[in-house]
Amino acid sequence: MTTELPLLATPADGVPPLVDTPAEFSSACAELAQGSGPIAIDAERASGIRYGQRAFLVQLRRANAGTYLLDSEVLADLSPLNDAFAGAEWVIHSVTQDLPCLQERGMQPEVLFDTELAARMLGWEKFGLAAVAERTLGVRLAKEHSAADWSKRPLPKEWLNYAALDVEVLLPIRDILHEALIEADKWEFARQEFEHLLDFQPKHFTEPWRRTHGLTKLKSRKDIAKVRELWTSRDEMAAESDIAPSRILRDRDLVALAQSRVQSSDDIMATWPKLSRANSGRLYRAFRKATRLTTEELPARKEMHATQSRSPFSHTDIKDRVSALKAAMAELSEEHTIPHDVLLQPAIVKALGAQSRVNVEEFLFERGARRWQVELSAPVLRSTLESLPRA
What we know:
18 helices; alpha/beta; about 400 residues; Nucleotidyltransferase, domain 5
């Protein structure tokens, strides 16, 4: 019978008060500056509830300073923390998730340690914060508030308790993972990845409306145009009201509306009664706009990408070459116990498959691969390419 791990229920120093005035924030910055060592950082958003991905609460913890919970929506500009941290290491679980919303508040790290990425580089199959805490510290974290509406004010004390615990575990987890990376001869790999993350920016889509779930089922350019206009209208309404677009109309409803034969805003309200009359009217105007577009104004069925150099290989040959490269990388991934997408981005492997007589190292570096990735991957990729038929 497996013994259940103890639940980490309350912060060691109690639940700190919410910092939500300029004076309190100034005091927090001074106290954090007097602390020592790395800073544990977390952020809580209101995904699926509010528009965008901004941080509504930022949690900080540092040795000899304690834990601080900042009302980042009220304080807005958190850039004074950059001077308070003075180049110290930031410890974050999943930098790609939290760094953009921290940067939006004016925060910019100089040194990073990503506990999620560290766990993945060690080959751990479970790398969420709760799973990593269990494996490293032998404790359970309650995660029932992870999807809460963090824009709510006042924040319930049990939510603040949850938020404080997330940063309380990060620093000891960081130390254990650091030692594990050194023992596995992967610390230099991780260090390069953490340095690379300093410049991380979320992927920008030139046509974000094409991310609409279910769009690929549409074959008619006219229907695709309707989704584009409806998506744009929904996004504008969501931004104005500061609510998540899905709370106005879900993606699948946009696609269904694009395929419908509605004749008025009343028809839209009859099918989606939760919509206000004003929103129904705006959506119908978007729908009508799309129906009046000329053939030249209709969007292409597929997203247009930047022009790429023509490959000397056929589509079938490229597919076979990419499959061979992926198989080789899968073996390398298993050998080093590093996930294949961490070992080398799949998009780079795919692009390499279309090349002929290419300098593999230069190709990888040009596409952003880190030195450790090139050193491990290039010999295997080069050998695989040499075994394949030439153009």
